[in-house]
Give the backbone structure.
Amino acid sequence: MKSNATFISDISKKEFPIADKVSAKTIRNPILALIQNDYPDFDADKFLSLTELNMYREKYISNYLLVEIGELTNLETRVIGSLNEDKSLVSTVEDEAGIRTFGQIVADKVAAFGGSWKFIIFFGVFILLWILANIYILLNKGFDPYPFILLNLILSCLAALQAPVIMMSQNRQEEKDRERAKKDYMINLKSELEIRMLHEKLDHLIMHQQEELIQIQKVQIEMMNDILTRIK
């Protein structure tokens, strides 16, 4: 049967389930200092809810980031939000695939083809056939006789158009690399903060268990004293 017992938080004076009750004795000093900064009367004998404790843990992490890296950016804010909502940042990052425009798609394909052996072989064969056709088939009296001015014009135009398209693709690749670096930073930052939170939770769990063991020992001592009293 599920218990409906509740308690009143000494911070917000609101009612919470007894399972969320946290003693001030089990809170680490840095977080306790933050709570006492807002509530000076909050001492070792007071209690608060786990939700309120998590709020101050988040505040502690925010203050830590402000000290370490200065003003919080959108990246740090998103990381803290993911910690508070208990969401996987990796899946969120992977879902953010950029939608390429038509121009970006064309630039990527041109850069991929222009930087391949297929393009070199294809264009080398084209130039060779052009030269052979004008010299041997048309006997150098064709539409582009030696020194092949039309061919030079085509090559110049191709180089002039291909260079900026390839640069567009390279700029896009650099932008993708920067986005990957941001995502790696977010994941690493969340890992570090989760380790800190894990230490907080472990310390809270250990101190909470110690407090329960002390209470059990007190009860056992009282029972032993009652037994001794009856024996006497």
Summary: The helical segments are 29-38, 50-69, 74-85, 89-95, 102-114, 117-137, 149-231. DSSP finds seven helices and four strands in the chain.
